[in-house]
Every structure is written in C-alpha cells, then in structure tokens.
Amino acid sequence: MNGTIPLSQENLQRLPDGVSRPEYDRKNICAGIVHVGVGGFHRSHEAYYTDELLRTGDFSQWGICGIGLRDGDRKIASVLEQQDYLYTLIIRHPDGRIENRVIGSIVDFMMGCDDPQAVIDRMASSETKIVSLTITEGGYNVDSTTGEFDFSNPDAQHDLAHPMQPKLVFGFITAALRKRRDQGLTAFTVQSCDNIQHNGNLTRKMVLEFARRQDPELADWIDANVKFPNAMVDRITPVTTQADIEYLKNEFGLDDAWPVTSEPFCQWVIEDDFVNGRPPWENVGAQFVPDVTPYEKMKLRLLNAGHSVLGILGSIHGHQTIDGSVSDELFAGYLRQFMDAEATPVLDAVEGIDLDKYKDTLLERFRNPNIKDSLSRICLESSSKLPVFLIPTIKDNLERGGSIRYATLVIAAWCLYCDRGVDRHGNELDIVDGMKASLNEAAAKTSDDPLSFLKIQSVFGDLASNERFVKTYTEMVGRLYQDSDVAQQMRNVMS
Ligand code: CS2
C-alpha cells in the first residue's frame, strides 16, 4: 500500500473499513481513572472495557490518564503522546478472523519520574475517582519472607524521606490521599488489576503499612475512607511484535508504533466496593460479585499455573510458544493431568462455573495458533509468579495428602532452568528475573546439596522442611540432573 496513515485523532476518519474506531467525543472526556502501569495487559483489558463502555453512551467522566513511574515507561509515553493516546487492539481468533479496533479510552499520560508533583496533583484532583494499577506481582514491594511491606527497598526509604517526590506507587498514592484529606475531598478507590490472589487486600495492606510508617494519622484516615476492591482479570496478551506493526501497515496502511494483540476471550470479575463511583463496566461484560475469591483462585491455579507448567517444561524442551507447546500431545496431556489431579482437587466450587468446561476452554485458548505467546514472556519473573500460581497448589496438596508429582517436576525443572540456562538443544534461554543471580547461584549448588534451590525461603517458604515434598523433589531433581530430557521425566510422572 502506498503511503501510510499515522494513527492520530485527526486521521481516525481516514481509516479504512476493517478497523473500528472510537466515534465518541474524546475531547470532552475527563480522566476519572488514573492508571499506573500502561503495559499490553492494561491496554487489552481495562482500557478495552472502558472504550467499549464509552462507545455505548455518555460516560464521559470515565476516561483514563495513564501514568508511567519508571524510565522504562518513556517509550509508551512518547508513542501514546504522538498518537493522541490512541492505539490499535488486534484481536486474533483461533479460526484466523481478526478484529482491529482503535481504542480511545486513554486520553492523557504522565511520567511520575519527570514530574512527581504533577502526578500527585492529578491523583488528588476531584476528577479522579479511581486509581487503578497494573504493576505486576513484583510491584507490590512485599518482603516475601515476612509478607510485610519491604522497607529495605531503597526506593521505599527514599519515599519516606521525600514524601513529595516519591518513586514507588505507594508513595504517590499516599501523597495524593493526604492532599485529598487535607482538602476535604472524598478519597479515591485503589483498584488493583494484577494477577494476585486478593489483589485488593494486598494493595490495602501495602498502602497502609507504608502510610503508617510515614504518618499514622493518615493511615487511619486511609483505613476508614479508601476502598480496595479485589478483582480477577483475564485476557491473554502476548508481547507485541514487529509483525503486528507490519500487519497494520500492510493490511490497512495504518501506522501504529505500538499496537496490542490479544485473544478474543476477556474476563473481569470485580468486588463491588468503590468509594467514589465507578463506571458501569457490567454493561460491557464485567461481572460484579460479592466475593471474588473462588474466581481468582480458579484463574491463578489453572490458567496462570498452566502457563507456568508449559513455560518452564516447554522452555527446557525447546518449545517457543504456548500454542507450540500444547500442540505437542505430551505437553497437552501433562497439563490436563496437572489440572485434573493436582490443581482442581484443591479449588473451591465456583457458582455457575463448570470447572471441566473451564479447563476445556483454557486448552482451546492455549491452542489458539494466532496468539504466539512466547514462553519467555510466561517465564518472566517466575520467582514472583510461581509462589502465587503454583506453590500454593503444592502446599494445599501436601496438607490434604493429594498428588504433588506434576507440580514438583516443574519446580525441579525450574532449578535446572536457572542453573543451566539452556534448552535441550543447547540454545540459551532468555531468563529475565529480578532474582536471576540468586536463583542461579542456589541452583548451581544442586549437585552438592540437592535442596540448595529449595532453601530460597522467599520463594519456597518452608517447603524444604516438608519431608514428602523433599523426597519427591530430590528424586526428580536427581533424575533431571542425570538426564535433562524433560520429556522423559514428564512421561515418568504420567505413568
Ligand atoms: C501469564 C499471564 O504472566 C503469565 O505468566 O500467565 O500473563 C496470563 O497470560 C494472563 O494472566 C491472562 O489473563
């Protein structure tokens, strides 16, 4: 196609059929939501739901102002700014159908590290009703050994010493809430959109612990006035590739520097606990429920744990993507058996959800050949993910005498992964983990001390002192270190 159309508000009318666009009046939208962490997932999920809502009527107080807190957010800041905060969501169906949709719900973006005061003021403004977060599991600054706020983090120390120039999201939220209290404004709701069980309760705990250290009276005010709804969020969103950018150019002549790709499936289950109003997201498919616990547990322990099972075992075996792994019958079978024999027996029933169907749907979603979800994305920050996704299933099964073999092999394989850092063909694995060095160091001692890896308490808790677990793990790690053919070990577990 000759000449491309740069994505911008002005050019929306020039977009060809085949790309749906926001027709609502974006100029008059107020950002009732301030969102920290505008990654792919926020853009395919909360921003998508909100765009869908804005398309249905006058909800103009519910736009989104994105916030980046770190240097790494500069790229998204500049791309969005150049594109009038517009971007394309490419929804890829398993049968090859593709929906292309320009999302218009983000209407502003600010960088906290450049102008912290401006971000605090924005959060404190009466327009802001919700501060939502996608800061990843690691962003909650939890000391994983104690479960408390980690004050040893230098950024936390900095924020305590410089309350008006914070670096961590907790410093920003606290400063903004102080300003609201002093001005007699209603608080905002803090809404976590991260994949953590009881994400709202955790956010509340971390905000309160930080605020209490800084200003106990403010902490009491927050405790009494702020709401932190729990929620389960779900939409598989692979990392954007150059091919996604080229696709929009070639098919539609559309020049979008950072589109997002996702699967069609989308789910958001939220506890209806907001202090200053909320968008009626239920009009566009979100579910509001009194207690989200069973939904989040089901998702974390089946979908996310399933991803980790495929991610760790598949990486060592030499698979590249989730769909590539599940098209391998051995991996698909192993995953299903892990879900049936270990994850499901320790789940609570979810009203209105048939777990067998949920698992069938998961496998279908994983099989979507048009979502090339890389195993390197799945394995990113495993040290924060596995304690949330997989280890609780092992612990529950240890307590009730259930099977632990499927999940334990994943832990043993993770040790090998951290130690060797290569797949079975000798190709180097792209390991990105804040704990990479300590994981590697502990894993490398396995031949001398088979439990060395397990002794990382912040990840495994007290698993190293559970006799049954230690026995199974030691056997598996021993076998894997003798023969790193993970497929053979998977067959052993299944036999
Ligand atoms: C994945 C999730 O990060 C992971 O390991 O399991 O990002 C997953 O794709 C999303 O939670 C889907 O909602």
Automatic annotation (TrEMBL):
InterPro entries: 6-PGluconate_DH-like_C_sf (IPR008927), 6PGD_dom2 (IPR013328), Mannitol_DH (IPR000669), Mannitol_DH/Oxidoreductase (IPR050988), Mannitol_DH_C (IPR013118), Mannitol_DH_CS (IPR023027), Mannitol_DH_N (IPR013131), NAD(P)-bd_dom_sf (IPR036291). The keyword NAD applies. PROSITE patterns: MANNITOL_DHGENASE. It holds the Pfam family Mannitol_dh_C. Residues 291-478 form the Mannitol dehydrogenase C-terminal domain. It comes from the Bacteria. This is Mannitol dehydrogenase family protein.
